[in-house]
Write a structure and sequence with these properties.
Distance between the termini: 49 Å
Oligomer: single chain
Strand order of the largest sheet: 1-2-3-5-7-9-11-13-15-16-17-18-19-20
Shape: globular
Number of strands: 20
Strand content: 15-25%
Structural class: alpha/beta
Number of helices: 11
């Protein structure tokens, strides 16, 4: 027993002997401030170390509304760090939107917070107006919030802005972009409140637009953009993609319903593909692939639409209908087809799959260097059968390498 007690004391001494900076760094990596506070039982030296940690992650999980407010109040009273690097406020109350949360946010902004995360899983939270004028914010992530700025927005140091399930007042996006001269990353998902979205930025490098139901018109002008993710519903009527660099990697996907398959949407798809024909890499999502196949786009594709795409990636199990897209991409150097996310029972790899009517024999890219097929390894001989077919596949390009990848 004495030996065991001595070993425990020795371990405690090792923990106590760590420099304050190391202890505080360890605490900053914990998933919540509540857990950081609990580490005080390890050693007397650890008891108040969390108060000097420049990271506050306040999560309401497992607490009632009143208990969560008391926890936040006590935490902020005891917290004694002059600078906050990261402040997360996450709450889950369907019928409560207490104005006291604004005072918690002000606490963080007064300490020049760099990264601010505000997330409400139920009730939408209206952002306080003082937040729209902040010189310290570098990263801002919001979920289920309302953007209704009363005047101009000034986020002069902001480089990353993520907005999910948020509601916007009219002209809010215009004010955001005009007030963020250093913005590099912008992601807008499941948001609403605007019919037209104009994103013009000379600093933006990464842009993601996902499932914006109320959006009808898109205009993007970003000369430094490196990555574009455009995943919307087919209620979009016009899409203008201007001043995009040739080094861009773009992902395009459009959700649709059966009654939406018409000539207007076909024209929109053609227009978007033509505007992206110069990009370095184009990825076509599963919804758009399904749509293109369902309307037999290959029969309707304009013969004058010749794409200069060099890298094309697709996610689908049904590729009938895009033959013309590949036929009209003579500069294609790399083709990647991912069927790993689908049940392979639905993949049509029958005996006529590689016939003259299929996608591969329509491939007219004589400069093709690599074709990658990604499949799910389900423990059967399915990948082996596919690889055998691929080895016998006719190739327009004499130097083409066909690569089969299997994922678990």
């Amino acid at each position: 027993m004495e030996s065991k007690r001595m070993k425990m004391e020795e371990k405690a001494d090792r923990i106590s002997g760590l420099p304050d900076s190391i202890i505080q760094y360890i605490l900053s990596l914990l998933p919540s401030t509540k857990e950081a506070i609990r580490t005080g039982i390890l050693s007397k030296r650890w008891e108040n170390q969390w108060t000097q940690v420049p990271v506050l992650i306040l999560d309401s999980a497992g607490m009632s509304f009143e208990k969560f407010l008391n926890f936040i109040d006590n935490t902020l009273i005891l917290h004694d760090c002059s600078k906050i690097n990261k402040f997360h406020l996450i709450y889950r109350y369907p019928s409560r939107n207490d104005p006291q949360f604004s005072s918690k946010i002000r606490f963080a902004t007064r300490k020049d917070v760099d990264e601010l995360y505000l997330g409400s899983s139920e009730q939408q939270y209206k952002l306080p107006n003082f937040l729209f004028n902040n010189a310290s914010l570098v990263n801002l992530v919001t979920g289920n919030c309302i953007f209704m700025p009363n005047g101009k927005i000034s986020w002069e140091c902001l480089t990353k802005l993520v907005m999910t399930s948020c509601r916007f007042a009219e002209q809010a996006m215009e004010l955001i972009l005009s007030g963020t001269p250093l913005l590099k990353i912008l992601n807008i998902s499941y948001c609403f409140g605007f019919n037209k979205l104009v994103i013009a930025s000379n600093s933006l490098e990464n842009l993601g637009l996902k499932e914006l139901r109320s959006l009808f018109d898109i205009e993007i002008s970003c000369p430094k953009l490196e990555r574009l993710m455009l995943s919307c519903y087919l209620n979009v009527k016009t899409a203008k993609l201007l001043n995009l660099p040739s080094s861009l990697s773009a992902t395009v996907d459009f959700k649709h319903y059966e009654d939406q398959c018409n000539e207007i949407h076909l024209s929109l798809i053609k227009d978007i593909l033509q505007q992206l024909q110069h990009v370095k890499e184009l990825r076509i999502g599963s919804w758009l692939m399904e749509y293109m196949s369902s309307i037999q786009m290959g029969d309707q594709f304009s013969p004058v639409l010749i794409l200069n795409i060099k890298c094309l990636a697709m996610i689908s199990h049904n590729m009938s209908g895009i033959e013309s897209l590949l036929r009209n991409s003579p500069q294609l150097e790399k083709l990647e087809i991912n069927v790993a996310t689908y049940d392979q029972d639905y993949c049509d790899f029958g005996e006529n799959y590689w016939s003259d009517a299929t996608v591969f024999n329509c491939l007219n890219a004589r400069v093709l260097e690599k074709m990658i097929i990604q499949l799910k390894d389900d423990g059967t001989d399915f990948p082996l059968k596919v690889s055998q077919e691929l080895l016998n596949l006719p190739r327009c390009s004499q130097c083409a390498v066909i690569e089969l990848r299997c994922t678990k």
